[in-house]
Amino acid sequence: MRGKVGNFTVTFQPSGKSAVVPQGSTLLDASARAGIFIETPCGGQGRCGRCLVKLDSGQLSHRENPHLAPPQIEQGWVLACTAQPLSDVAVTNPVRREREKVALETAASRSAAAVRCDWPLYPAVRQYFIDVPPPSLENNATDLDRLQRALTKKHGLGELQVGLPLLKNLAQALRQANWQATAVIENRQGQARLIDLRPGQQRGPLLGLAVDIGTTNVVAYLADLRTGRLIGQAATRNKQGTRGEDIISRIIYSERGSGLEELRQMVVDTINGLLQELAQQYHSAPGEMEEMVVAGNTTMTQLFLGLPPRYIRSEPYVPTASHFPLIRAGELGLGINPEAPVYCLPAVAAYVGGDTVAGVLSSCLFKTDKLTLFLDIGTNGEIVLGNADWMTCCACSAGPAFEGAGVRCGMRAIRGAIEEVKINSQTLEPTITVIGKVRPLGICGSGLISALAEMFITGVIERSGRIDMEHARSRMKTTRVRQGEHGPEYVLAWAKDSGSGEDIVLTEVDINNLLRTKAAIYAGISVMLRNVGIKSKDIEEVLIGGAFGQHLNVEEAIQIGLLPDLPWDRFKFLGNTSAWGAYSVLLSQHAQVQGEEVAGKLTYLELVADSSFMDELTAALFLPHTNLDNFPSVKALLERGGRAAPLTTSSSVPSQKETR
Q1: Does 357 map to a domain?
Q2: What's the domain range around 505?
């Protein structure tokens, strides 16, 4: 039945219920009139993507939304809270399972947009099967000479270097192998070195490791160097975290007595723990792993090698080295084959290290024609801007907040962590998504950004980051906002609903830490753009690396002022680019050579030396920024009904030292 002029009839399937609504109404309005329940955790503001319906017939108007990928839009999926009938329409309100399927397809589409470079398989460490002629009275050359001749004759290898530990065991190893053995050899730039000698013809995997030494977390990938196959991966907290959450704290600690050796041993112990975990997964021994490639920021690399990092934190901020020699694993105390080579990706400057070089490698930024912004958001925020013709970079201390550290209920992105928050604008009640779909234990980095954006848009916090107690308690009548032990706080989960038996909260102190973190990153981007004379709107692609980045919601990151306000399709998520870059170098010497070239090509911008950085940092300490015109989509959202609290100056401004 057709409604009156200016009215439209909306029919909901499979129930067949319908309602007549005036022009300008949403499908959510129509569902309420028809008695159809549609889940809207965000209060119908288009921020959660839970109110999915599918258009069967008729016409709708609806705005762009990151919760729907282009394929879903083409299939007719819309959000009921934003779609408005332009004629009589029929829509299907799907069962929960189908809505979740669409959400998964959206996530898959987003992941498919990731960029990763492919390299030809050309590892430095390889296996060579040989028949060594046994000695005789007629052929009484040394065992080493006969090994060398067999390798030259069959595989064309030149002079072979053999370390003393292997040389001591060579005679016995050849005889136990009955003169048939597999030599594991590092062959880099024509220099061959024996790493291992195994009896018979080895047909199994040749194991190597790519390790990302992060300030907060350490990640290891186990690879088969023969096939390039990723066998397993493991991650854990960097044990150095007990001696300081950031690199400055650890540099200071390294200057105390035996502090440097203690920190070096801590990261080695962390890696050795991962080796044991991977060995158990694969039913092998760590000693069977024949090579390691390491990526880390400059300080982490120097601490790993035992190089004093003290001058990194003092002007003019000079590291001991930017290129590091190949080292044998045994020299460092690593649990793999003691003769295995350990290669560390080169650094660029004091605060841009091998992890950034690895990110440029794995993202293909070094060969793109597009003006590209690369971000690796972790404890340290590294930023690269450029393309195949030029690249400039800088670093800012993001701090550990987005990795869950320094936040009262913060935790890593593991089972039990809150990874998404939606707040109903009418009741201020949250709907949370927990990794593993279990009772929440805390909140991880992506959850913190999500919570901060929701609290801002719904008016729980002001633009300065201050929790608006009066608005929440007197107008909304909510108990979620309260005065806690450490000041004002918002309760994300009550103790009875949590896995810890305690309330999970976000405090005003936590919020200020998050504001300083996001402000440092945005200020770094702003200064870099100004220095090269480019506007943010000119950026054609934004590549986001780091394990944290793959869980980031672009819309929410823009709403809090962490990322520039650009169309969502320009953002791509690459995962742990540092680990993937190290993995590329492990599998291909071509990637190693390219990495050396990238390190030499990157132009470093020292933010502390730029007088405008502190001004940009101060301006970015608000939500989303002191200048709302920098964030037109957020400004439009607030004008459409989101509550913009007044701008105040109550947030503290970190000192220049704290921004390191």
Answers
A1: no
A2: 401-513
